[in-house]
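Lab notebook, bench 4. We co-purified these components, and the gel suggests they stay together. Before we commit to crystallization screens, I want a quick structural picture of the whole thing.
Request: model the full complex, all chains together.
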Amino acid sequence: GEDVEQSLFLSVREGDSSVINCTYTDSSSTYLYWYKQEPGAGLQLLTYIFSNMDMKQDQRLTVLLNKKDKHLSLRIADTQTGDSAIYFCAGSGANNLFFGTGTRLTVIP
Amino acid sequence: DAGVTQSPTHLIKTRGQQVTLRCSPKSGHDTVSWYQQALGQGPQFIFQYYEEEERQRGNFPDRFSGHQFPNYSSELNVNALLLGDSALYLCASSGTVNYGYTFGSGTRLTVV
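Here is the predicted assembly.
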């Protein structure tokens, strides 16, 4: 199966940009996803990128994909306290998703 | 438009018991997947159901079984519960275009 790795923690000040990084081992994923999980809740799909794209922008979110290095990143512009959560990157198998362990983002007011 | 709904939200069971969790997919979705999320971990794929058949299975023992009904809703059954089965169980649904799985809020299972 695919391994997906993320750093565990990230702290930023309100209004700054956050960058959450992810590396994966299986280059056959057709789509790569970013999900957000707030305490006690399920997963909310934030954005996804098709594997033949380098970048995707969606309002405050920018996803960068480096297929050569198998590296995915999520940039959140103007980070707000409501962005505090755990962020998961996930690769896609034929019928399933492979998740990292998640990055806990803490936004300091 | 209702998203994915799961029931119950919380459950406490004793070791050795059996449990059934339920999931209704998002309107228009015909595929249901189940994931187990242990505390502090990312979700792990259990299995996926499509057209009332198990289409793919992750690395979980046979104690974990499922079912999909003609209305696309699904059940996850776990037999002979172990303490290690304590986790958040997430249901995800998807349509024929296989991107953007929609997750429910999960069922928190505690085995004591």
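The radius of gyration of chain B is 13 Å. Worth comparing against the SEC data before the next meeting. Chain B has a mean pLDDT of 94.
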